[in-house]
Amino acid sequence: MNGTPSTHRNTSADWLGLVLAQAVWWLAVLDQTLAAGLLLLAQLALMWSRWRWQARHWLPVALIAASGVLVDGVIAATGVIRFRDPLLFGVPLWLLVLWASFALTVPILLQWLARPWLRAVVFVGAGPLAYVGGAALGAAKIVQPLPYALLLLTAWLLMPWLWSSFFRQS
Questions:
Q1: Mean pLDDT score, 126-135
Q2: How many domains does the chain have?
Q3: CA–CA separation, 49 vs 129, rounded Å?
Q4: 3 found inside a domain
Q5: pTM of the model
Q6: Beta strand 81-83 with 140-142: parallel, antiparallel or unpaired?
């Protein structure tokens, strides 16, 4: 994909980055925000060393994290979901950590899922399932399931397309 950090090969660093992101998710959802934040720092160091990012690579990752927080804030504002311990626009600190961690994985995922239809299937499937899993573990309460599902599916259908455009611009 144009603009992503590095000519890409699946490496052990990529896999470790994805494993760290999954660990951040579990810790954040299980109300261990400090531990999740420490793992986020480890993930950040790993990605920095793996990609040797230049300044232009940080903007797309920051935009991905910000777009995720914004979408979650808008969806929370509709009242269809309530997050545990809301902080910023209805979004809790643990979810900010989670979005920062996920944003670091997006360049890997966009390259691995090079075909747009494959991205759509994976993101539309996995994204909402993460929210359902988080709600089942007490991190959020889905107040209105059908409207929430429609908003979330729409967001996860559009966001990967938007994210790939961030890297094309860099």
A1: 93
A2: 1
A3: 31
A4: no
A5: 0.87
A6: antiparallel
